[in-house]
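User: two proteins, same treatment. go.

Assistant:
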Amino acid sequence: MASSNKPAQPFTLSFSRQFESWLQGFNASIAFSTYQAGKVFMIGMGDNGISIAERTFARCMGLAARADRFYLASQYQLWRFNNVLDPGEQYQGYDKLFIPHLGHTTGDVDAHDIGIDGNGDPVFVNTLFSCLARPTAQANFDVLWQPPFISRLAPEDRCHLNGLAMFEGEPAWVTMISKSDVAEGWRDHRHDGGLVMDVRNNEVVCDGLSMPHSPRWYKRKLWLLNSGRGEFGHVDLHTGRFEPLCFVPGYARGLAMHGKYALVGLSKARNRSFSGLALDDELQQRSAEARCGIVVIDLDSGNLLHHLRIEGMVEELFDVSVIPGAIRPMLLGFKTDEIKHMVRFTGG
């Protein structure tokens, strides 16, 4: 197994037996974040096997990727990384090199999902202030939308707005834990208060969910994670019903789609927010324990085909993203000499 910047103990990454052969034919690479360890990982293929590249950022959370750019929400900033390698060019064996070129100071707003709009600009879920927002040069953020039941924008995480699905380059659907309009009121509605709302008309399209996360529009379906019950599935937009495709063994958060596959991030129950849910009973009935890692799901059958597991002190992931067309990507952090000398310019 080839690796770069291999993560140090006390946690390890391991892969299911067929994961490497599957990744070879995936025509993309995988990125995921964990704020528990403050790490962003990129998983690709090197000459001698699976390549693992990682960097450290404070409280890594939401991710969004395209072939030429990569967005990361950290503790109080949102960063844009640009790929600086031309097609066919390599840097130390990597075919994508993402460098942080633009940063916005958002403040510590607990930024969750990030969407990329039709202009290539980021939109993010501002969970602490219960709104969708956009970075701006004039302030910490511009408010784009707020749920109609939120009477006042305040740093109170009232409904735990967390997920964003884009449609044709615009924000379309969001997930939240409840309709609460008081500080952290969502914590009283973890079992069945979750809902999906269409931000274009303020209509609820699905409710009765348990801690939903990570809505994604893909292949004419609105997919999401019904995390409190350990379910991955889609919303029937005609009936408003959630249709589970499969059960996943862990607290699901972070979803990426590519080809015929879904990649779902899993976490263990670390605290009161994650525990005491229907997921616990379902795991017990299946004689299983919650895992930390990523599972690869066949969208046609619902079968869990492959997995990546993290073992040790890291017990939760935050987000998962796919970098299309990347075979072996890496990103630069701020504490390397490389970033001082990796200068790119236009014009001249």
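Protein 2:
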Amino acid sequence: MYETATKAKADSDANKEDAKDDASKKSVEALTSIGKESVVYTGTSEGDLSYLIADNGKTVKSSELAEDLWRAAAGTPDLRTALKSDGDVLDFEITTGSANAQDLQTTYDSFKELGNGFSMAFTIKVTDPDNDNANLGSTTITFVNNKEVAAVSTSLNVSFTTPIHVNAGDSAFAQKLTTSVDAKVTNEKGETVKPSKVKPGNFYNNESDAILKNGNTAGVSEKFAGDGLTYYQPVTLEFAPDAVNVISIYNAMKKDGSQRITLNNKDAYGQNVSSANNSITYVREFQVGSGFDNNTDKPDTDDNNNNEDNNNDANIENGVWVEDNANGKVTVGNNVASLYDDNNNLTNRAVAANSAWATDKSRTNSKTGLKQYHVSTHEWVNADDVTFSGDENNGSNALGTISNLTGHHTVDLAGPDGFVYALFSSNGTRSNRGLAGNTSWYTDKSATDGEGNTYYRVSTDEWIRVSDGVSFK
């Protein structure tokens, strides 16, 4: 009888121990699984990391960790359930890269306010206090705030083409369209600042009337007429107030020169700026002649009699894009380079200064002579902004020496958000997808190609090549 009771108690204790071990195992597995991918906030689903920060350097129990992660919007309801089912048996030690509480708070404030890919990582180590604090594993959870936050600019330069040479009979109406404006606005950091609105105006006979928009217009309707005449057109660029305060910058320029607004690197005047619509207005000059080639001052030497498109008014007016193979890479110069869509409209994206991009083709406009390189599915960069080099790997150089990575690793991509980094498949061909700047991606394998370039796998058969702006952690 006594032996039977003792055995029943022993069996009961063993079952409890097995249940405890099973619950602990599930909580550890659930926790380590969420470290495989970054927790990305976009501004609409932002979590609260303050509870994890408050427990930095501390050892907490399962239920407290479950609440910390739930408030941080990390993991799933299943993870919360798994941690709580542990019954507070295990210990969870939370650490970050900042031991100093003040520095950590400063980092968190930057995480919330700066966005644009700012990240914070927390490492969680799991131990069993009932087994001499045995280490059961650890995981690192990386939080990335991808909320787009516009940095307020303190100086602006507007660069644009003037004078513009046109032929008598060329379309004047086309120059009143937004797509005719080639203005590029950069701030004090050399970053591109995109206007919220672009408004080309009417034509005037002198620059003063154009900038003030006073007096009678020049009477130019659909086409330019009058070989040898000159016309002036105001172009107004409006900006979002949270990105640019035009009058504040101009006032600082006049007061002490600490900030500046320049037009083609020359100081703007009061009539160039407006507080009413937070705008900058400049004037571009049109010189009408004959025999000019594509808005340049070079006479046209083409034999137009042999042009098959002579009867196509649209092609004569706007030109056609002629594509050519250009397998290789383009390297951006010292300034960011704007991107254009398939219709040559300026997009709100750009590529970083001194960065390199794979390209597979170029295109040249038959009227303007403008040449561009293809750098993403529907985006092109002007040849003047990059340097082209051929024979870049585009499928003839498959990846080899593929190795599994141990531990948790990410590939971090530099910003800004508009940058797109090319992806490649294991056979060396370029994917039709890419990764945005200011993002982090979990990676589990590395590889090299025949030229010694290193790649990291970020999806089933998509690899990112190590280059400027790509860092492995």
